[in-house]
Write a structure and sequence with these properties.
The protein is mainly alpha-helical. About 55% of the residues lie in helices and about 5% in strands. The protein has eleven helices and three strands. Strands 1-2-3 form a three-stranded antiparallel β-sheet, with no helix packed on it. α1 runs antiparallel to α2. The longest helix has 22 residues. It is globular and about 65 Å long.
Amino acid sequence: MTERQVTAYLVHLREGAVDRPALSAASAARAVSAVRGLHRFALREGLCPTDPARGVSPPTRARRLPKALDVSTVERLLAVPDSGPLGLRDRALLEFLYGTGARISEAVGAAIDDLDLADGTVLLHGKGGRTRLVPVGGYARAAVDAYLVRARPGLAAAGQGTPAVFLNARGGPLSRQGAWGILRRSAERAGATGVSPHSLRHSYATHLLDGGADVRVVQELLGHASVTTTQVYTLVTVDRLREVYATAHPRARAR
């Protein structure tokens, strides 16, 4: 095997063939990473004298801008749940996601002891074992408090006892899939399209930056290890600024 053959394989993946469509940059990158890993292993084990894949870099993946919901859509989404026990839970979860910027995994992983509603904060357990203390907005605090007082005790009675804040109908911890299902069903009822598990997190970040928040503060709130990750949201807000400027300024466009 030679470096030229590995490169040709990558080109073949990207260009496709008669019997196979071309792969996206992300899919081709995964395939090339597997090839690189195999050759690193072979070199380490003495199965080959050189690593022909070492100099072949995976294709750069196109940067996808996060899609945020506008404020009116978020408000429709948050207004969907009813006042029954599960409705109170669903409203609390949705308000929590939008009010804290938590990932769904962080929300379902939150324990009662992580919440301090009197102080308006929650300790979130993020990626890589990192934790962060973030504020909980007033609407989210009210929704979570209503759920804890009026709904969670009844749900917990059906289970074996768990410290998780958000419970399923059987009294166990709500799963990521269960939380995503709540978001998806609420979005359908609200007539919101293009909603993903991260939609409320994306909206949280974008709306903060639109409101004038510093990007490094938003970085801390989101739990990003690097500000570069957070800066993707600034691209979204710049696009929004251009849109507003183009429609609002009397001389934004030449006649």
